[in-house]
Amino acid sequence: MADLQVVDLHASLTDRALNSMNFLNEISHHYPDAISLAAGRPSEEFYAIEDLHSYLDIFSRHLCDDLGYDEAAVRRTLFQYGRTKGIVHHLVARNLALDEGIEVDPEALVITVGCQEAMVLVLRALRADPKDVLLVVSPAYVGITGAARLVDLPVLPVAGGNDGVDLEDLVAVVKAARAEGLRPRACYVMPDFANPSGLSLDLETRRRLLAVAAEQELLLLEDNPYGLFPAAGVDRVPTLKSLDTGRRVIYLGSFAKTALPGARVGYVVADQTVAAPDGSVGLLADELSKIKSMVTVNTSAVAQAVIGGKLLANDCSLIAANQRERAIYADNLRAVTDGLAARFPGGEVTWTVPSGGFFVVVTVPFAVDDALLEKSAHEYGVLWTPMSHFYDGDGPINALRLSCSSVTPDQIDAALNRLAALITDQL
Questions:
Q1: What is the pLDDT of residue 21?
Q2: Exposed, middle or buried, 415 (CB in 10 Å: 0-12/13-18/19+)?
Q3: Below-50 pLDDT ranges, the chain
Q4: Which of 357, 353, 315 has its CA nearest to residue 336?
Q5: Are strands 399-403 and 359-363 parallel, antiparallel or unpaired?
Q6: Angle at 272 (CA atoms; ends 267, 277), nearest 5 degrees
């Protein structure tokens, strides 16, 4: 019997970050009748099976009519192994230009298996030496910290503060790391309605962040899954990448929230140049594609075709295509914050009021952990996410995250009643 000990496997397998998603999924599985304010999934209200066939047809016609493919080439493109960097890169580049004001050569794009793979590729490439470290704005999406653990890249937290990133702390962390002989490679940030905090960077903060990155010779990893979902009356703010004139920003994108999570299609914009020892210069995207070829070979051509068809059906802009979803998320977000205000008129319980996105953070005067979540699911019938999952360390965190994206207003009302009962009993 080839029995193994976990201590003989990679250290990341016992890390909290890698266990986080599995634990939360297991809780949902064990308590299917509990109302979930935990999952950051998009609304399924407008999904239709027939759309999949339609998008495939649209993309196939695009290959024939616009790109000049014959029938054999179309069949090969959809059914065979594909180009490592992707087959919809030209459409994604058009989408970025239209929706985000990002002008980029399609060859600077790598189409990935979800945004999670994009993170792994970038971090694997950046981690060149044991002295290398990644900075993350804290609290941070567990996917980035988990990816960093997989490639043995230590993570240093940077305070988020009231503005979404504390720039003074960012500089202090960079300088302290360098004083210890470490090499900060990049800082990960989610400028729009961040997961989990819900905070956003205003335009001035974005410009200052880019200036700090240039001064400190630091790359920025911009993750933007929620940018198309500002609340009603809130104007969108330009992405860091659209403001970036020095190629400081590596842009991580996903179609999970704006098109179809089941397709598992994401991408990375890596237009930074890379000089080789022989003096030749290429794109970081080409280096990332080498890593991808050894990880997933290529992203499913069928999945890319579905996303490509969705883009083509909407003239490569997803802003109008998500107006219904934006309205739902805005209404749900308001229902959560108004509902909390109605149930907790005093000051013991506080919460964020984000200007868009999916998430609200509730702060309470007691520690919130996995045991309390299990109690909430079992005894009160409501799920949420302990904020401790988004911090390094084992110290107590007195906060929880609520997600409003995949529930109805009636479910929100019932869930908040159950949450209020739990909190009241804990108090």
A1: 77
A2: buried
A3: none
A4: 353
A5: antiparallel
A6: 125
